[in-house]
Amino acid sequence: MRMPDAAKPPVLRAHEIHVRFGALHVLRGVSFDLARGEGAVLLGANGCGKSTLLRTLNGLATVESGRVDLNGRTITDAPSRVLRAARRQLGYVFQHFNLVPQLSAHQNVLFGAMGQRRFGVLSVANAFARTEDRERAMQCLERVGLADRATHRPAELSGGQQQRVAIARMLMQAPQVVIADEPIASLDPKAGREVLELLWRIVEEEGLSLLCTLHQLDLAQEFGKRIIGMKAGRVVLDAASPGIDRADLDALYQGAVRVDAAPTPQEAAA
């Protein structure tokens, strides 16, 4: 396992994680550290265990053994209140944007503050949202270059613009760690590059930690200062991007064995 910079203690740590779905051994001793302010790309063929790993990091997948630590505190099998607090520190950017179609861009960004407010959804509904929350949501839209689209609904925005709204919503949450799950998979190459440039710039400016799954190897090497490669439920590559040969990345997708699976109803309800 690659050791983090001693000057940057890990904000997120997975230690010897094993996950099974019945007889299916999906994660087989996965370990890695993510330092504060570090941006890493997670690579691997479909079915290698990436999705299960991401669900494990926020407690949605049941761990057979091993643990996940966030800011030095173990969140695996933690009480629900501890897990809820941990999830507030994890911001997500998804492949399919997950915006509410009936709401404006500004209203969608407001939902990023939901975990910080006592009354949840009601606290961030536009009619009830605090003035400071509404102002901060506009600031987040400005950060992604969409202040002039604040009143537009998702259907009125391009795919790249919708993903920018999703990034603004993540910013509104004020997380410490960002999990970006194939954030450009639904975008054309030009829009995808622009979104990655924006995401990396914001993460660096805010001093956030980023774990981003991608399938575009050229972009992974360009943007990720570190590459974590998975194959058949294990981490088989973990190194600084400049020192990795392209053949090592290609090998992640050769002879791949599918071990990943959809979450069980019990996981989804966790």
From TrEMBL:
<dbReference type="InterPro" id="IPR003439">
    <property type="entry name" value="ABC_transporter-like_ATP-bd"/>
</dbReference>
<keyword id="KW-0067">ATP-binding</keyword>
<protein>
    <submittedName>
        <fullName>ATP-binding cassette domain-containing protein</fullName>
    </submittedName>
</protein>
<dbReference type="GO" id="GO:0005524">
    <property type="term" value="F:ATP binding"/>
</dbReference>
<keyword id="KW-0813">Transport</keyword>
<dbReference type="InterPro" id="IPR027417">
    <property type="entry name" value="P-loop_NTPase"/>
</dbReference>
<dbReference type="Pfam" id="PF00005">
    <property type="entry name" value="ABC_tran"/>
</dbReference>
<keyword id="KW-0547">Nucleotide-binding</keyword>
<dbReference type="InterPro" id="IPR003593">
    <property type="entry name" value="AAA+_ATPase"/>
</dbReference>
<dbReference type="InterPro" id="IPR050086">
    <property type="entry name" value="MetN_ABC_transporter-like"/>
</dbReference>
<dbReference type="InterPro" id="IPR017871">
    <property type="entry name" value="ABC_transporter-like_CS"/>
</dbReference>
<feature type="domain" description="ABC transporter">
    <location>
        <begin position="12"/>
        <end position="257"/>
    </location>
</feature>
<dbReference type="GO" id="GO:0016887">
    <property type="term" value="F:ATP hydrolysis activity"/>
</dbReference>
